[in-house]
Description:
Blueprint: H1 2-14, H2 21-24, E1 34-42, E2 45-50, E3 53-59, H3 61-66, E4 79-83, E5 90-96, E6 102-106, E7 114-119, E8 123-129, H4 136-149, E9 152-158, H5 165-177, E10 184-186, H6 195-201, E11 207-212, H7 218-226, E12 251-253, E13 259-261, H8 278-289, H9 306-312, H10 318-328, H11 330-335, H12 338-361
Parallel strand pairs: 3-5, 8-9, 8-11, 9-10, 11-13
Antiparallel strand pairs: 1-2, 1-4, 2-3, 4-5, 6-7, 12-13
Helix pairs in contact: 4-8, 4-10, 8-10
The structure holds guanosine-5'-triphosphate, magnesium ion (MG) and zinc ion.
Amino acid sequence: MRSDIGIMTRHNELNKFGWSDWFDQRAACKPTDTVARVAAVDREQLLLVDQNGHFRAKLSGSYLHHHHLSHELPCVGDWVCVEKHLGDDFGVVHALLERRTSLCRKSAGSSTDYQMIAANIDYVLIVQSCQFDFNLNRLQRYLVMVMDGGAEPYILLTKTDLVDPSTLAKQVAEIESAGITAPIFRLSNITRDGLEELRRRLLPEKTYCFVGSSGVGKSTLINQLIGGQRQETRAVSGTGEGRHTTVRRELIRLEGGALVIDNPGMREFGILGADSGIGDSFSRISALSSRCRYRDCTHTGEPGCVVIAAIHEGEILPESLENFQKLRDEATFNDMSYAEKRKKDRDFGRYIKSAKKDLRKD
Ligand SMILES: Nc1nc2c(ncn2[C@@H]2O[C@H](COP(=O)(O)OP(=O)(O)OP(=O)(O)O)[C@@H](O)[C@H]2O)c(=O)[nH]1
Ligand SMILES: [Mg+2]
Ligand SMILES: [Zn+2]
């Protein structure tokens, strides 16, 4: 009984770092271990955080022996089982807790492994500068990457001080007409337009990961949110072109209670799905949809569906439709309960499987 109470308080205190019932139901640490969250990874060393603050830890020899793929190693945002005794300099990590969501990309030269960007994030802010970086195809690939990992996407257009309002309006219209329903934020780190609106959206105990090309203003923004100068940024040319500055990811808790993770600028080829032409087929599917017999066609078997016809013609891959559906249904999807989501995933998975089978039969 007493130990139950102990566990309850521990978990409640961990909530402020993003702990929730979901992890509670799955955590199976040894009685000698406690739970902590990975705040940063420096080569072999981990910076962990729990209700008592930050501390350093290493992976146990046995863990390293049994896990070789990079995605099997803890990354920022992960929850781990760690053993630490009073007076120890380092904790020893024995296990990695199941990830509720993840953000990952392909590893260079490997088809089976993938590289973790962050784990257990609730929202990913896809950042593009409206001045030099705006690109709808890349945005769509980021969206697919985010949806695949189970987090919710927000779109953030930065450097609004450098373009005129009509350019910005055109970009927003372009995003919306592509069928993307993720919330769009417009922001300037210079004039601070849009900053408070974004700050208000950052909920306590939720984890937000910022991704996007180098130089779009991710770290500058996070600095503003922190209100200090903890993250490094380097001055670049007045044209707003970026230089690679951020080198490490760190989970930081804001005063308002939200947890944010900065990221080094990402090179495009690393995005999962980037070479499968998702961006192109995405636009094609949205264009075709308008010719389906029913205006609210879900492309899941309605008569007169032009999209399904295109799949049967081999013009569009079933996978592309799957990704398209994920993005389009995002708004409804977010309102569903976890169980409903699981069921919908299974149903849709079955449908895609049968669609693929049909294709092979032809
Ligand atoms: N004009 C303008 N400049 C900005 C804005 N936000 C950031 N900058 C400048 O853009 C440059 C790059 O900003 P960073 O915050 O370092 O960009 P980053 O996305 O963190 O880049 P990486 O760490 O390389 O991924 C800096 O010189 C910033 O001062 C903005 O809203 N408007
Ligand atoms: Mg940065
Ligand atoms: Zn249709």
